[in-house]
């Protein structure tokens, strides 16, 4: 998207012509966070989901500094407020507040019918709606990091006296209400689908607006914000409390209604859970491989009808892009520049996935996962997940299809399109000195687990490197919406057939039986899905599995107020320096996290921001 060109001296000139006004709208879009960038998405590395080598040759990852417990008030890491330390959008020095200001300028000028005379009324309304959506999203993006913020409904005039710029933080619920108001106004005008994907792919639709509204309201209804006594100390200088610390059950009902509205709109627009179409390939693939491709391609296929919101400002290809960071060499000679393998899921994540019976490894009556140092040899009927005859950890056997679709490990299969049939395919050999191992000086895997989920299956190696199928980062997909609705509905009225239905649709795509059937037949806690508390636990685990490595786990654990438990554990992997079974299959502690509550639930405002604006108050603990 082209942005405002050089040479346009004043706003008046910009809004004289349709062509220049459209470029200004694209300026508003240009502040979209690059969440498909390993360095620009704090949720990838600030928690316990994945790790990367902590070395400067491999690049700075300032979100990793947060996971390492090094966040600070002076020059905070990943400073979204001031656009510094990889918090800038789209680059450092670019503040998201600038994006909000541009949206306000656009809305104000396009709302004047005397401006841009060469535009239709329908187009004018649509463009204003897009700017309103972006303005709402940028406010919500800030609120995810900082909680309550100043809400910029209108720009302060540049001629205003200095005190006019020193805005206090507005109460959190007021900010949420304003965001929802903008999203409702946008959804009422925007088209449900993009008609011309060649010229408008990535622009906002009414389905995107309704889906973001669901996410916003579920967040606001969650324990971090709904009745959290820890936030009673956050008060403006004039005595205004920034959070309502009384729990309001109705917030969950409002969130459930919004999620159902978004689901209905998405399905009416033709969106559905992705299923891989084997017939289009010409290959004879097993059901095992087809199921895994349905899981992987749900987010990496650029034509996936599950993607609600593709962020075309954030692509995942390129020699230093997200896919290259996740890809592993699959034979001797594969270029490590395009197969860097640095994205390293933790053992915590490997344990999170269900067994092949569809229940947690700690609950399955048929299996014992207590000793993950035990090694087993893959049998012929396991050869589509693990190389036949290969010995690997007991943890890697008897797991659900999403485990094998999302994760690679020593001995695991990695199916790509250029392997043709799935009897002729690659597997990982990950011990030190092996072709997928961690003997590179700075492009190495930290944990012994690899992130297959983020790599499109059409990736190919070549003599001079390799190529990746480009896909726009999926900001939101239908499975996410189903899980938000199931969560909100369970909080409203507890277990019901409707809650089970939306969970089971996702599980069916993942090759699993329904929740009630799986727990009744295989869990040592068979009644778990029948209670609100038990089903809440199931929904949360289902969400963390289905959306693993998509930048959702971090924010979910914060809003559920579970981060203090989850982020105070060891970050662990296998001993990547081991060159044989005995030395490699030892648990290695990479880092002991230290999450302090309530401080670390919110980003700190920098000392500079507090000095510049004395009406701002700091977040608790900082």
Structure description:
The protein is mainly alpha-helical. It starts with 10 loop residues before the first helix and ends in a 10-residue tail after the last helix. It has a domain of 175 residues. The longest helix is centred in the first third of the chain and has 26 residues. The model has no long low-confidence stretch (mean pLDDT 95). Helix content is 36%, strand content 8%. The chain has 22 helices and 14 strands. The strands form 7 sheets. It has a two-stranded antiparallel sheet.
Could you outline the blueprint of secondary structure elements for this entry?
Layout: H1 11-14, H2 18-29, H3 42-45, E1 50-51, H4 62-67, H5 96-110, H6 121-146, H7 172-187, H8 197-200, H9 206-221, H10 250-268, H11 287-300, E2 307-315, H12 322-326, E3 344-345, H13 347-352, E4 375-377, E5 391-393, H14 401-406, E6 407-409, E7 413-414, E8 426-427, E9 449-451, E10 460-462, E11 465-467, E12 472-477, H15 478-493, H16 497-509, H17 515-522, H18 532-546, H19 553-559, H20 563-566, E13 570-574, H21 581-584, E14 587-592, H22 607-612
Antiparallel strand pairs: 1-3, 2-12, 4-5, 6-9, 7-8, 10-11, 13-14
Helix pairs in contact: 2-5, 2-6, 5-6, 6-7, 7-9, 9-10, 9-15, 10-15, 15-16, 15-18
In short:
The chain is mainly α. It has helices at residues 11-14, 18-29, 42-45, 62-67, 96-110, 121-146, 172-187, 197-200, 206-221, 250-268, 287-300, 322-326, 347-352, 401-406, 478-493, 497-509, 515-522, 532-546, 553-559, 563-566, 581-584, 607-612, and strands at 50-51, 307-315, 344-345, 375-377, 391-393, 407-409, 413-414, 426-427, 449-451, 460-462, 465-467, 472-477, 570-574, 587-592.
